[in-house]
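Section 4.2 – Deliverable D4.2 (structural model, holo form)

The reporting period included a commitment to supply a predicted holo structure for the target in complex with magnesium ion. Inputs used:
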Amino acid sequence: MKINLANIKKAKKLLDNRDCVAIPTETVYGLAGNAYSDQACKKIFKLKKRPKDNPLIVHYYNIKDLRKDCELNYNFYKLYKKFCPGPVTFVMNLKRKSKISKIATNNNASLAIRFPRHPITRHLLKKLNYPLAAPSANLSTKVSAVSPSQVKEDFGKKIKYILNGGKSSIGVESTIIDLRKKPKILRLGGLEIIKIKKILKKEIKENLYPKRIIAPGQSKLHYSPGLPIRLNAKKISDNEAGLIFKKDKKKKKNFFYLSKKGNLNEAAKNLYSILRKIKKSKYKSIAVTKVPNFGLGKTINDRLIKASKY
Ligand code: TXA
Ligand code: MG
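Output (structure tokens):
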């Protein structure tokens, strides 16, 4: 991907002024602001219509910058070395002296952090002297955005600038792992759990659909295209949109395919774009056929389950 320095400069100028800018990441686009600034973080919540008690993920360029804000531990170093930069978010203890805005954390003593891999955003982060708070660049509870035009669909002119980094290569959000005590998965995402287990060399607890919500992303309705969704459909009627994992010969007008050849990574990359496309079509409900439940298929199923709580 070609890096346009003038665009990065423009984004930096706005961010330095405590404004918000949409940034590309390999998972989904983020709505970014200076994580040390209350003013910038307040703007993010307002633009997204996000409840104040749902803290923001903070994005860093490298471990040196992170050390100022968080207590690092052994599990973190192991996972950092193997997977960062990449599609994984760590929940850590905040240092008391940290400058992270209390608006971003909702006054919690923990912080969710990540090192995005997208080259344009890495270039930008390197130039800033603060980390970037950035939730997904979509309206709260709705489908995330994986391209500049999708960010525009949600925010129009309310965001002053969208840094163009093309289509997100992974297409679903980062995997979240709480590393404060025994490692615990809080959200499935772009990094497969099996790979994390291999590095930590142990079983990892999962807390994905808890009674008591730890991450508000775990709350009921999320990732919603704004239409009712029927899961594991065996038959699809002509008046509903069929969301189908693998392209086949049947080809009907109301069929939307996640993947040409039945590839889970390709399906994850297409998921949000197709949900947005269906929302814009004439269909008023969605029937999903079974998606294999391994690898990124688990993440796709997680998103569809949450989106179906409409
Ligand atoms: O891939 C991603 O993670 C994208 C890109 C832009 O980096 N970001 C993203 O942010 O998905 P967001 O805000 O849409 O989802 C972050 C999730 C939320 O469910 C939030 O509740 C949870 O992370 N979270 C944030 N801080 C937390 C904390 N201290 N402890 C537990 N969960 C936290
Ligand atoms: Mg989100």
